[in-house]
Protein backbone atom coordinates (compact mmCIF):
# COMPACT_ATOMS: atom_id res chain seq x y z
CA UNK A 1 0.00 0.00 0.00
CA UNK A 2 2.83 2.36 0.94
CA UNK A 3 4.70 1.48 -2.24
CA UNK A 4 1.60 2.21 -4.29
CA UNK A 5 1.21 5.68 -2.72
CA UNK A 6 4.92 6.33 -3.25
CA UNK A 7 4.64 5.41 -6.92
CA UNK A 8 1.66 7.71 -7.37
CA UNK A 9 3.54 10.56 -5.68
CA UNK A 10 6.66 10.04 -7.79
CA UNK A 11 4.53 9.86 -10.93
CA UNK A 12 2.77 13.13 -10.15
CA UNK A 13 6.09 14.77 -9.33
CA UNK A 14 7.51 13.72 -12.69
CA UNK A 15 4.44 15.08 -14.48
CA UNK A 16 4.85 18.44 -12.73
CA UNK A 17 8.57 18.56 -13.58
CA UNK A 18 7.92 17.76 -17.25
CA UNK A 19 5.12 20.37 -17.37
CA UNK A 20 7.29 23.09 -15.84
CA UNK A 21 10.18 22.23 -18.10
CA UNK A 22 7.97 22.40 -21.19
CA UNK A 23 6.43 25.70 -20.03
CA UNK A 24 9.84 27.25 -19.38
CA UNK A 25 10.98 26.28 -22.88
CA UNK A 26 7.94 27.96 -24.40
CA UNK A 27 7.99 31.02 -22.12
CA UNK A 28 11.55 31.38 -20.77
CA UNK A 29 11.89 33.56 -17.67
CA UNK A 30 8.66 35.56 -18.15
CA UNK A 31 9.56 38.37 -15.74
CA UNK A 32 13.06 38.78 -17.14
CA UNK A 33 11.64 38.56 -20.66
CA UNK A 34 9.12 41.32 -19.91
CA UNK A 35 11.83 43.51 -18.40
CA UNK A 36 14.04 43.07 -21.46
CA UNK A 37 11.13 43.96 -23.72
CA UNK A 38 10.46 47.12 -21.71
CA UNK A 39 14.11 48.15 -22.03
CA UNK A 40 14.03 47.54 -25.79
CA UNK A 41 10.81 49.55 -26.08
CA UNK A 42 12.25 52.51 -24.19
CA UNK A 43 15.46 52.41 -26.23
CA UNK A 44 13.54 52.25 -29.50
CA UNK A 45 11.41 55.22 -28.46
CA UNK A 46 14.50 57.29 -27.81
CA UNK A 47 16.18 56.35 -31.11
CA UNK A 48 13.24 55.90 -33.50
CA UNK A 49 13.20 59.54 -34.65
CA UNK A 50 16.64 60.20 -36.19
CA UNK A 51 15.29 63.26 -38.00
CA UNK A 52 14.65 65.01 -34.68
CA UNK A 53 18.13 66.39 -34.11
CA UNK A 54 17.24 69.16 -31.66
CA UNK A 55 18.81 69.25 -28.22
CA UNK A 56 16.89 67.43 -25.47
CA UNK A 57 16.04 69.52 -22.40
CA UNK A 58 15.96 67.77 -19.03
CA UNK A 59 15.08 70.82 -16.94
CA UNK A 60 11.44 71.81 -17.31
CA UNK A 61 9.01 73.89 -15.26
CA UNK A 62 5.49 73.20 -16.49
CA UNK A 63 2.67 75.28 -15.00
CA UNK A 64 -0.26 72.90 -14.60
CA UNK A 65 -3.29 75.20 -14.81
CA UNK A 66 -6.64 73.84 -13.61
CA UNK A 67 -9.14 72.50 -16.17
CA UNK A 68 -7.13 73.36 -19.26
CA UNK A 69 -6.24 69.84 -20.37
CA UNK A 70 -3.17 70.15 -18.17
CA UNK A 71 -3.23 66.55 -16.90
CA UNK A 72 -2.97 65.21 -20.45
CA UNK A 73 0.11 67.34 -21.07
CA UNK A 74 1.50 66.48 -17.62
CA UNK A 75 1.67 62.78 -18.52
CA UNK A 76 4.09 63.64 -21.35
CA UNK A 77 6.52 65.30 -18.95
CA UNK A 78 6.14 62.53 -16.38
CA UNK A 79 6.86 59.79 -18.91
CA UNK A 80 9.78 61.78 -20.28
CA UNK A 81 11.25 62.20 -16.81
CA UNK A 82 10.65 58.62 -15.69
CA UNK A 83 12.25 57.22 -18.84
CA UNK A 84 15.38 59.25 -18.06
CA UNK A 85 15.40 58.84 -14.27
CA UNK A 86 14.98 62.59 -13.70
CA UNK A 87 14.05 64.18 -10.37
CA UNK A 88 10.58 65.70 -9.95
CA UNK A 89 9.43 68.49 -7.65
CA UNK A 90 6.85 66.71 -5.48
CA UNK A 91 4.59 68.21 -2.82
CA UNK A 92 4.81 66.98 0.76
CA UNK A 93 1.40 68.25 1.88
CA UNK A 94 -0.47 65.01 2.56
CA UNK A 95 -3.81 66.77 2.85
CA UNK A 96 -3.86 67.44 -0.91
CA UNK A 97 -4.15 65.05 -3.81
CA UNK A 98 -0.82 63.56 -4.99
CA UNK A 99 -0.61 65.82 -8.06
CA UNK A 100 -0.91 69.03 -6.02
CA UNK A 101 1.89 70.98 -4.37
CA UNK A 102 -0.33 73.88 -3.32
CA UNK A 103 -3.62 75.41 -4.45
CA UNK A 104 -2.94 78.86 -3.02
CA UNK A 105 0.84 79.23 -2.86
CA UNK A 106 3.99 78.72 -4.87
CA UNK A 107 6.87 76.30 -4.23
CA UNK A 108 8.58 76.87 -0.89
CA UNK A 109 11.73 74.89 -0.06
CA UNK A 110 11.55 73.19 3.30
CA UNK A 111 7.80 73.72 3.50
CA UNK A 112 5.62 72.29 0.76
CA UNK A 113 8.02 70.27 -1.43
CA UNK A 114 10.09 67.17 -0.75
CA UNK A 115 13.86 67.82 -0.97
CA UNK A 116 15.67 66.20 -3.90
CA UNK A 117 17.83 63.13 -3.19
CA UNK A 118 21.30 63.84 -1.81
CA UNK A 119 23.64 64.88 -4.60
CA UNK A 120 20.79 65.61 -7.02
CA UNK A 121 18.83 68.68 -8.08
CA UNK A 122 15.30 69.07 -9.36
CA UNK A 123 14.79 68.44 -13.07
CA UNK A 124 11.04 68.71 -13.70
CA UNK A 125 8.22 70.62 -12.02
CA UNK A 126 4.81 69.59 -13.37
CA UNK A 127 2.34 69.45 -10.45
CA UNK A 128 -0.34 71.98 -9.49
CA UNK A 129 1.16 75.06 -7.84
CA UNK A 130 0.76 78.83 -8.16
CA UNK A 131 3.30 80.37 -10.53
CA UNK A 132 6.02 82.61 -9.13
CA UNK A 133 9.06 83.05 -11.35
CA UNK A 134 11.53 83.94 -8.61
CA UNK A 135 10.39 80.99 -6.47
CA UNK A 136 10.66 78.63 -9.43
CA UNK A 137 14.14 79.92 -10.25
CA UNK A 138 15.14 79.39 -6.63
CA UNK A 139 14.75 75.60 -6.91
CA UNK A 140 15.22 74.87 -10.62
CA UNK A 141 18.49 74.86 -12.65
CA UNK A 142 19.39 78.02 -14.56
CA UNK A 143 18.76 76.45 -17.98
CA UNK A 144 15.19 75.44 -17.12
CA UNK A 145 12.59 75.81 -19.86
CA UNK A 146 9.31 77.37 -18.66
CA UNK A 147 6.07 76.10 -20.18
CA UNK A 148 2.43 76.85 -19.35
CA UNK A 149 -0.99 75.87 -20.62
CA UNK A 150 -4.17 77.97 -20.89
CA UNK A 151 -7.64 77.51 -22.36
CA UNK A 152 -10.38 79.73 -23.79
CA UNK A 153 -11.81 81.21 -20.56
CA UNK A 154 -15.46 80.27 -20.98
CA UNK A 155 -14.62 76.69 -22.00
CA UNK A 156 -12.37 76.47 -18.95
CA UNK A 157 -15.24 77.76 -16.79
CA UNK A 158 -17.63 75.17 -18.26
CA UNK A 159 -15.13 72.39 -17.55
CA UNK A 160 -14.78 73.63 -13.97
CA UNK A 161 -18.56 73.49 -13.45
CA UNK A 162 -18.78 69.93 -14.77
CA UNK A 163 -15.83 68.67 -12.75
CA UNK A 164 -16.24 70.40 -9.38
CA UNK A 165 -20.01 71.12 -9.30
CA UNK A 166 -19.00 74.07 -7.09
CA UNK A 167 -21.03 75.17 -4.09
CA UNK A 168 -20.46 78.81 -5.05
CA UNK A 169 -22.52 78.29 -8.20
CA UNK A 170 -25.03 75.57 -7.36
CA UNK A 171 -25.39 75.82 -3.57
CA UNK A 172 -28.68 76.63 -1.80
CA UNK A 173 -30.77 75.88 -4.88
CA UNK A 174 -28.97 78.43 -7.06
CA UNK A 175 -28.37 77.96 -10.75
CA UNK A 176 -25.78 79.29 -13.17
CA UNK A 177 -27.89 82.29 -14.20
CA UNK A 178 -28.19 83.44 -10.59
CA UNK A 179 -24.43 83.14 -10.08
CA UNK A 180 -23.51 84.97 -13.29
CA UNK A 181 -25.69 87.97 -12.41
CA UNK A 182 -23.46 88.76 -9.43
CA UNK A 183 -20.56 86.33 -8.88
CA UNK A 184 -19.07 88.44 -6.07
CA UNK A 185 -22.08 87.73 -3.87
CA UNK A 186 -21.28 84.02 -3.81
CA UNK A 187 -17.47 83.96 -3.86
CA UNK A 188 -15.95 83.70 -0.39
CA UNK A 189 -12.67 85.69 -0.46
CA UNK A 190 -11.32 83.55 2.39
CA UNK A 191 -11.67 80.29 0.48
CA UNK A 192 -9.91 78.84 -2.55
CA UNK A 193 -12.07 79.43 -5.63
CA UNK A 194 -12.05 77.44 -8.84
CA UNK A 195 -14.68 79.62 -10.51
CA UNK A 196 -13.29 83.11 -9.94
CA UNK A 197 -10.63 83.49 -12.65
CA UNK A 198 -8.72 80.36 -11.62
CA UNK A 199 -6.45 80.45 -14.66
CA UNK A 200 -5.34 83.98 -13.81
CA UNK A 201 -4.80 82.96 -10.18
CA UNK A 202 -2.62 80.00 -11.18
CA UNK A 203 -0.60 82.45 -13.28
CA UNK A 204 0.00 84.60 -10.17
CA UNK A 205 -2.69 87.26 -10.64
CA UNK A 206 -4.24 88.19 -7.30
CA UNK A 207 -8.02 88.25 -6.57
CA UNK A 208 -8.16 92.07 -6.06
CA UNK A 209 -7.33 92.40 -9.77
CA UNK A 210 -10.29 90.26 -10.85
CA UNK A 211 -12.92 92.94 -10.27
CA UNK A 212 -11.21 95.54 -12.47
CA UNK A 213 -10.63 95.45 -16.21
CA UNK A 214 -7.57 97.71 -16.00
CA UNK A 215 -5.06 95.18 -14.56
CA UNK A 216 -6.62 92.39 -16.62
CA UNK A 217 -5.93 94.32 -19.82
Automatic annotation (TrEMBL):
Its main location: Golgi. Keywords: Glycoprotein, Golgi apparatus, Membrane, Signal-anchor, Transferase, Transmembrane, Transmembrane helix. Belongs to the galactose-3-O-sulfotransferase family. It is a single-pass type II membrane protein. It comes from the Eukaryota. The gene is LOC111113389. Pfam families: Gal-3-0_sulfotr. One of its GO terms (molecular function) is galactosylceramide sulfotransferase activity. GO terms for biological process: glycolipid biosynthetic process. InterPro entries: Gal-3-0_sulfotransfrase (IPR009729), P-loop_NTPase (IPR027417). It is found in: Golgi apparatus membrane. GO terms for cellular component: Golgi membrane. This is Galactose-3-O-sulfotransferase 4-like.
